[in-house]
Queue: 2 jobs
Job 1
Amino acid sequence: MKLFATCLKCKHELSFNSDHKTRVEFVMHEGKIKVIECYNCHHKNLFIVNDLYAKKSKLAFVIASIIFLVGTPFLIYYIPIFLLKNGGIYSSLIIGGFMLIPIIVYSTILKEDRIRVNTFNRGYYQYEPELKK
């Protein structure tokens, strides 16, 4: 998953990859504070995990769109061939079901991406200040 933060000095958006699905999981594996160097102004920023956020993936949208845009014409081309060989009402219903496959795949990919982003952004890590001994 790609996580983002905003540089404190130049307000440029910083990004980095992470395998963690929630902020709590991020803290458990990488700690409460993430150090990211801005590649625009080269300022080292310290971010608390609650300052990080996820966005919808452009790659998931592109893949879903390609599946939809390639799959639909492919099915439209081959459906008449199948209907001519195996005519009948039941084969027409089955083919109508096949027409839904690109739509279902497209919506599922976008839905899973939206759930992934919402899961990370919704939960905040509640931490208590550490006591000095």
Note: The CA atoms of residues 83 and 92 lie 7 Å apart.
Job 2
Amino acid sequence: MKLRVDGLEACDRLGDATPGGGGELALLREINDRTKRLETQLAAMKAETAVARTETIEQFAAVDLEIAAIRREIHTHFATPAADGEDYIPTQIADEFASVRAEISQEFNAMRSELLDLGIKLDRVLKKDYM
């Protein structure tokens, strides 16, 4: 693309000296305008990607905190046996695990959907500018 723009600029310089050289100038302006639009759209996409990455990191941190809390709770239950001798820990762990797993699954599905949407938008932007 850069080589084409350089070539058109060279033609424009030659076209100024010859009659009918304005077509290259108009084409060069159009290319410059499209390039600026593309750069703007790519900057917006980069910003959206950065926000998505930040949200993903925050969500992973939240999952890590929840796992750590579950581990602490399990450790506490195993360190202090129940007074009545009832062994409810495996059931409680299974319930907590199912709950956390469902939340994680929902979060990952939402992130995957957002990333697919961003990919589609990026493909559309690139396709529009190359056509």
Note: The two ends are 13 Å apart (CA to CA).
